[in-house]
Amino acid sequence: MHLINLEKMINLKSYRQWMLLSYIIIMISNSLFSFISSTSLWRYDKLIHFTEYFILGVLLFHVMYEKPFTKKDVMYYVGFISLVPIIDESMQFFSELWGQKRIPSLYDALADYAGCYAGCICYSIKYRIFNG
After folding, report:
1. Chain centroid to CA 7: how far?
2. Nearest CA-CA partner of 65 in 107, 2, 120
3. Contacts of 57 (CB under 8 A, 6+ apart)
4. pLDDT for residue 97
5. For the chain, what percent of residues have pLDDT higher than 90?
6. Of 60, 74, 56, 50, nearest to 16 (Cα)?
7. Is residue 115 in a domain?
8. How many structural domains is the chain composed of?
9. Is residue 109 within 8 Å of residue 50, measured between CB atoms?
10. Is residue 28 part of a domain?
11. What is the arithmetic mean of pLDDT over 45-51?
12. What DSSP designation does 115 have?
């Protein structure tokens, strides 16, 4: 018995799913490799984390609202989006192996979660207002 019917959830012809996948790849590569080494950006670190994951939440629910879904589907999507910040911050433990040392932070993860869920909620509200 399969927990997730991947064929039902994944449509490789959907531009929405490709946008989400591309964005996740960009996020992970940004976590693995520091592209910007400016110290002046550290003041806005939590805001950057929140914004990055807000966009992820919006993109994820943009995919979810592409077709009808059940409460069980919502739980899978929320479970997925809950794993991404954990994986992202955990990978920073090993960042020394491929370049610059990154420091994982619980506060970064909290900003990530706040951004994820805020993006999901905002997209849901927007969808209900404009689509009934």
Report:
1. 21
2. 120
3. 81, 115, 116, 117, 118, 119, 120, 121, 122, 123
4. 66
5. 31
6. 60
7. yes
8. 1
9. no
10. no
11. 91
12. H
Does residue 11 sit within a domain? no
Q: For 71-103, how does the pLDDT look when each residue is reduced to its tens digit (9 = 90+)? A: 888 898 889 889 988 888 888 777 666 666 777
- The Cα 107–Cα 83 span in angstroms is 16
- What are the φ/ψ torsions at residue 4 (nearest 5 degrees)? -125, 130
Q: Which residue has the higher pLDDT, 101 or 23?
A: 23
Residue showing tokens 């491929």: 98
Q: Is residue 88 within 8 Å of 27, Cβ to Cβ?
A: yes
Give domain status of residue 106, yes or no.
yes
**Residue 132: exposed, middle, or buried by beta-carbon count in 10 A (0-12, 13-18, 19+)?**
exposed
Q: Which residue has the tokens 């995919």?
A: 63
Which residue range is the domain that position 74 belongs to?
A: 47-132
Let me know: does 17 contact 11? Beta carbons within 8 Å: yes
Q: Which residue bears the tokens 């900003």?
A: 111
